[in-house]
Amino acid sequence: MVVNLDWISIFKMQFIADLHIHSHFSRATSGKCKPEYLNYWAQLKGIGVVGTGDFTHPGWLAELKEKLEPANDGLYRLKDEFVKSIKEGMPPPCISDVRFILQCEISTIYKKGDMTRKIHHVIFMPDIQTAEELSKRLGKIGNVASDGRPILGLNSRNLLEIVLEVSEEAFLVPAHIWTPWFSLFGSKSGFDTVEECYEDLSEHIFALETGLSSDPPMNWRISALDRYTLISNSDAHSPGKLAREVNLFDTDLSYYAIRDSLKYRKGFLGTIEFFPQEGKYHYDGHRKCQIRMSPKETLANKGLCPACGKEVTIGVMHRVESLADRPEGGKPEKTDPFSSLISLSSILSEILQVGPNTARVQRRYIELLSKFGPELAILRDIPLDQFKKGDPLLVEAIRKVRSGNIYIKEGYDGE
Predict the structure, then answer these.
(1) Alpha-carbon torsion 275, 241, 146, 166, what sign?
(2) Which residue, 248, 159, 247, 250, is CA-closest to 205?
(3) What predicted TM-score, i.e. pTM, was given to this entire model?
(4) What is the per-residue pLDDT across 163-180, written as a single tens digit (0 to 9) for each?
(5) d(CA 199, CA 205)
(6) What span, in angstroms and rounded, lies between the C-alpha atoms of 360 and 366?
(7) Quick one: how far is CA 263 from the chain centroid?
(8) pLDDT digits 0-9 by tens, 28-43
(9) pLDDT tens, 88-117?
(10) Fewest C-beta in 10 Å: which of 90, 96, 122, 168?
(11) Which helix (H) or strand (E) holds 379?
């Protein structure tokens, strides 16, 4: 899939959106997860719309009010005074006007049936006022100031009800639906259907976030998911991790157009994905024993680690297999396009044989962006013959990534 984008201006109808991230108020996040740095890295990556993350946190909401201003319908932009603070060092071909969409993630932990359920949800609001109202409503149930992604003892169905009561324009997307510990279909605490989770309000769920450890073909194997738009986001905990997964749109640049595109699957051009094998929970396994297992191997070992005899963590591939009613390769009549990529820093790290965060990699990264534009354009769209002829390793690496001709050791049990 190739989408020709004008990378200098996101006022074109086509744009890229990363709709799920976190702020510096979430646990295990970078102190640079602030609006100005998110804006800076969104430009480097080629993202037109980025989630704010964590708007239920009072401290983060105050920072958003200080640094953002209304732009297009329901979207926000960084105020000029903060744009100026991050202009230095920006490669000129990457300069663009980034938009923010108000977004947060909520963790609900509660007992239902015979299990303790741990489900994560991504929530979107059309304006600061309704975001603030949701924060106040949820603050009466739990401590929303304790973490950017607060944990609430609230049934998922009831959370959705509160979201819709606060704003009819709001919407909720189940987050990274396959991860074992905290998701809709997670092997440790999830459900087998959307309806089991959201009950009578299930009709208000129209999109699902597939997560880093799964891709569209894996989800296509479950016919009950055919009616949902499958989206992919970075869930970034640092600005440099933006665009690990993103969504492509051909709509007006507005909150309402994005929502309606997901709801009615019009103007949604698909996703750019992580290779799911790279996900930390793709395969089954036991991290302490460094045991990685395919679903078939797990079944042959009766779910036990062959090294220590304890239960292994059931990964995404196994869980998909257990719910699938189509064979491998099966899919519905209507599917949205997708492509899979590896980050440019990871590619340069392999070529230079140094860590992805080293000065050598970052220097080469900026050199390439200064010449060719944002990272996603380099990885997907720039003709290979435009790259420096004296850099055959880079050309070959990008060629292999674009064709999917790569080898990845599957992630397992958080590894």
Answers:
(1) negative
(2) 159
(3) 0.94
(4) 999 999 999 999 999 999
(5) 11
(6) 10
(7) 18
(8) 999 999 999 999 999 9
(9) 889 999 999 999 999 999 999 999 998 999
(10) 168
(11) helix 375-380
